[in-house]
Amino acid sequence: MNNCSIDQSATIGMKSQLGDFSVVGAKAQIGQDCQIGSHVIIHPDTVIGDRVRIDDHAVIGKEPMRAANSAVTKEQKLPPCQIGSESIIGTGAVIYRGAQLGQKILVADLATVRENVTIGDFTIVGRGVAIENFCTIGRYCKLETNVYITAYSELADRVFVAPCVATSNDNYIGRTEKRFDQFKGIIAEKGARIGVNATILPGKRIGADSLVAAGALVTKDVKPQRIVTGIPARDFREVPEDELLSNQDWLE
Prior knowledge:
It is built from one helix and 33 strands. By secondary structure, the chain is mainly β. The longest helix has 4 residues, at about 180.
């Protein structure tokens, strides 16, 4: 813990180690046997479970910023950021105050998790992923490199999102007051899969066990257990029986 700045009100569990020049804020709690890298910033009140690894230059518990002309970011009192036991936070990742992460989660290098986000146990948040505010991500999800999850989205358990998928929550692109009545992210039901470079428009529901093909543009809800393809996405066929979640022997 050489060259670290640790507030006297912070608590650090047994066997936990901090790299050089890390900062631990007031009333922060770090569990037992954690490995904290160099130049890590742990903001006040943050709660970190046991056996958590946080790599160099990560920022945990950051207060959100609000632009003077922001339409949706509000001033609010947020609960402390929480990182569940046995999770891994990558280099340069930023986890905001008010984010609640479960156990055994991976947040990879350069990913961002905003305030008012919950992430379930065993989920993987890939490199460069951005999860905006007011999102719920289930258990055993996988968000691959450079996925963008827009604000006010809901992903159920076992959702898979391939690299570079983009989602949106504003049909009016910030021009008129109408947008506030229809402002909504995406909903991906249990076991839904979204292919590389697909785009999902605001408020669309991706049904359980459905599959959005690579490069598709989803402008309508996708029915459960169906494959959609194309621009705009159209119904193609059923998901093969052996691909359904209920037929996977690796489920707990």
